Amino acid sequence: MPGRSMPVREAREIAQRIAQEMQVELVDVELVKEPAGHFLRFYVDRPDGIALNDLALLC
């Protein structure tokens, strides 16, 4: 999305630091527009998988 790459880049940098602290891999960050609005999505993974509790700790 034009004009939105800077906030996504900044969000990626912050998320990368958090992911390293939590020992997970930040796979991707994307900003998408859906009927309900814009959503910033973070995709994370680790070798043994991600559980819902792991995601709660990332928030």
Please explain how this structure is put together:
The chain is built from two helices and two strands. The protein starts with a helix and ends with a helix. The chain has a two-stranded antiparallel sheet. It has helices at residues 5-22, 52-58; strands at residues 25-34, 37-45. The chain has one domain (5-58). It is an alpha+beta fold and 59 residues long. The longest helix has 18 residues, at 5-22.
Show the helix and strand layout:
Blueprint (H helix, E strand, L loop, with lengths): L4 H18 L2 E10 L2 E9 L6 H7 L1
Antiparallel strand pairs: 1-2
- The chain-level structural class is alpha+beta
Given as residue ranges, the uncertain stretches (5+ residues, pLDDT < 50) are: none
Termini separation? 25 Å
Radius of gyration: 12 Å
How many H/I helices?
2
Q: SSE string, helix = H, strand = E?
A: HEEH
Strand content: 25-35%
Strand order of the largest sheet: 1-2
Overall geometric form: globular
Biggest sheet: strands, sense, closure?
Answer: 2 strands, antiparallel
Mean of residue pLDDT values: 89
Helix content: 40-55%
Tally the structural domains: 1
Number of strands: 2
In brief:
This protein has one domain. 42% of the residues lie in helices and 32% in strands. The protein contains two helices and two strands; from the N terminus they run αββα.
